[in-house]
Amino acid sequence: MTDAIVVVEDDPSMRRFLRTTLTAHGFRVVEASTIAEGRRAVTTAAPVLVVLDLTLPDGDGVALVRELRTWSRTPVVVISARDREADKIEALDAGADDYVTKPFGVGELLARIRVALRHARAEGGAAGDPIVTAGPICLDHGRHQVTVDGAAVHLTPIEFALLALLMRHAGKVLTHRQLLREVWGPGAVEHVQYLRVHMAALRRKLERDPARPHWLLTEPGVGYRLRDPDPGT
Amino acid sequence: MDVPPSDRIIVQPATAADDLDDEPVVHAALILIGGVRIIVALALGEPFGAEVTVAGLLLLLGLAGAVRRGLRPRVVPAAIVVVRPMPRWWGYATAVAVIALTTAIGLVIARQLALADLGMLYLPAVMLASLAGRGPALLAATLAVAAFDFCFVPPRFTFVVNDTRHGVTFAAMFLSGLAISTLTERLRRQQALAQQAALRAHTEEVRSTLLSGVSHDLRTPLAVITGAATTLRDRGVEVPATTRDELLDTIVAEADRLERMLRNLLGLTRVESGLAPAREWVPVEELVGGALTRLDHVIGDRVVELEVPAELSAPVDPILFEQVLINLVENALKHGAPPLTIRAARERDQVVIEVADRGAGLPPGDEERVFEKFFRASSAPGAGLGLALVRAIVEAHGGQVTAATRAGGGTCVRIALTATAAPTPTAPGEPS
Q1: CB nearest to B429's CB, from A158, A204, A209
Q2: Using an 8 Å Cβ cutoff, are A97 and A76 in contact?
Q3: In DSSP terms, which residues pair with A78 in a beta bridge?
Q4: Measured in Å, how far apart are chain B's first and last C-alpha atoms?
């Protein structure tokens, strides 16, 4: 049986567009237009992924993310309007995997879905590879070493932890809060300033042109993302 | 439009501030001079001569002025602004303090005043406490009755009351305290509602002005999209492949344009309706990098020269300011010619960011007008909102934006932001 994706979206045109696109890419689409329907669809259809609009007639999509995360690790990709950064952050911190901003191109949506599915599969598998790469950047956990185009780069422990985290979640957005909690600890989640300073340092060490970053991307107001090094699969 | 999160809205107390000239200082001085003279007279047991009478008149004059101003609703927001952010206990502490102070004054001048007059002393104290809310007002009224009974009602320094008439005095004191606090509370609530309504009306006005101005420009890309899409649907296979690709490209490009216009429109509405930018120290390099990444496909292989010091940060709202840079770069690409230059620097207590191109520059006299809404410098498509949004955002940050023709040709848009204290770039747990 083909993999199912649950689409929770109240706008019929948007739903039709998502159904056509996702079906054309080999998924079975189960549609829902409210949180209640979405909840039912997720429990009955056993989807590999959920595409979720945040503004729904019977409430906030974030509530569904929270509820889902109490019993399931099914990846969730959120779709939301341009000016709702706060909602996106809330959804991501509640356990959503990624987001696309309306209006979005098909390519962007499929890329997010691909990354989310890949990470979901990897989580179930064996321990991660001790050596991870993203383009010219190579991080060796065993030797605690980072190279760019084969040349060793000296990173401070914080920078190393930050890069390792971003590379483990390559292609996926990580919120300021998630990065701060993982690298600095739960006491530092409000100190976005630390993060900005260390991201700037990382860019200077890893990017060819730090003011036009190719790998360490900023998601303004939300967080950071390491560009997916493997967009084809 | 979505309602922005309320924690990012500030209700500007500007109307209150506009009206607060030096008058209150005069009132305060009158109250102080008159009051001190009378208290001294009472404490020393002086007979009430002409001098003390003048002092009394001054006191009355000052009080009357202060009360008249204080009751005018325009000043109340100032009181709200002062009182609201205080922690809860502060109001109760104030209540206890004013009653204690009043009792102390009463004890000093008890010999000169009749019992009923002493009771009156507590009214202004309760009134003052009621500014902090209903709870502190009730506490103050209760304390006032208790202190009055204990310190002044015979037998003094006991809570015993021999004369039932004093019960009436207590009730009057308590009820007037209650009444004052209710009135103050109601006034404050009405004021808050009025302010919200005013803000809403202002937002509504900004929105409708913008919408009416822009609806024509919104229709143009929509017409092109509809035209291209219906051609593809109705003529289907008849359309040659090259024409089909052209039509599809047109649809995508016009949809992009529509989205850009909506984004600027939304941004303008939000900024102009009094949304306070969230100030954070953001590396300018990150702002520029974010904007350029977003515009990657528009820039293509056109040259962008960057002079952005790595350690330079600016106190800005990261989302709004990325939009500023996106609009400036888009604008330079659309109306100017490459190479583009983005330069940032600290100049004394300012952070300066410049986006410049090597195009035709601005017609003389247009340097100011390019920032006006719906002003279009050339026939290139657009709604004339991009630079208007830039100015709105920069001004919301307390900065200035100017445009000028460069020596040697081209336009340079310059943003200057006041940035006095640079942040300390160290974080815990990091050996530097």
Answers
A1: A158
A2: yes
A3: A52, A99
A4: 46
Q: Encode pLDDT of B128-162 as tens digits.
A: 777 777 788 888 888 888 888 888 887 788 777 77
ipTM of the complex: 0.83
Return d(Cα B37, Cα B35) in angstroms, integer.
6
Task: Name the maximum alpha-carbon separation found in chain B.
Answer: 111
The alpha carbon dihedral of A146, A149, A152, A156 has a sign of negative
Answer yes or no: are the C-beta atoms of A27 and A47 closer than 8 Å.
no
**Residues A55, A15: Cα–Cα separation, whole Å:** 14
Distances (CA, A) of B374 to A48, A154, B120, B219: 48, 51, 63, 15
Residues of chain B neighbouring A220 (CB-CB closer than 8 A) = 290, 318-319, 322
CA distance B119 to B148: 7
In this complex, the residue of A83, A211, A213 whose CB is nearest that of residue B2 is A83
Nearest-angstrom CA–CA distance, B264 and B210: 10
Query: Given the DSSP bridges, would you call strands A145-148 and A151-153 parallel, antiparallel or unpaired?
Result: antiparallel
Residue A157: pLDDT band with limits 50, 70, 90:
very high
**C-alpha closest to that of B180 among B221, B238, B227, B141:** B141
Matching residue, tokens 């291209």:
B228
* CA–CA separation, B403 and B327 (whole Å): 14
Q: Is B194 helix (H, G, I), strand (E, B) or coil?
A: helix
Chain B neighbors of A156, CB-CB under 8 A: 430-431
